[in-house]
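Ticket #4471: structure output looks truncated?

Reporter: J.K.
Steps to reproduce: submitted the chain below (117 residues) through the standard prediction queue, then opened the result file.
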Amino acid sequence: MTEKEETIQKLKTFGKRRHRQSAFIDVDLDIYQKYVDLCINELITEIERNDSPGRKKNILKKYLSYIRKMQIGETVEREYVCMEFYDLSQIVSIDVGFYVNKTLYGSFLAILSFDIP
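Returned output as attached by the reporter:
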């Protein structure tokens, strides 16, 4: 199995995970699951076509911005959602740590947490 096929298989396995409403207090589970599924499908399509790192990063950033717009109030829920997207980014070997922090903490604190050389 090639690396590309392994990545696609990992994404498909990740996509089979389903969340229980009890894990979320103020999140519409159907909308959240839809965003995760759409993100995974776009990543799989990109890997099958080009496997462009820039395009994969843009896909993850796009869905993280959708998640930000959901205005998840509970910190535990935001952390859970951000870890899910971080896990997705690790599967496709893309660094989106800044954008995950931005979703979790907001723009100001994400900038403060960014390491400046």
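Triage note (M.O.): checked the attachment and the full token line is present. Helices lie at 3-15, 29-49, 53-69, 75-91, 97-105, 107-113.
Status: closed, working as intended.
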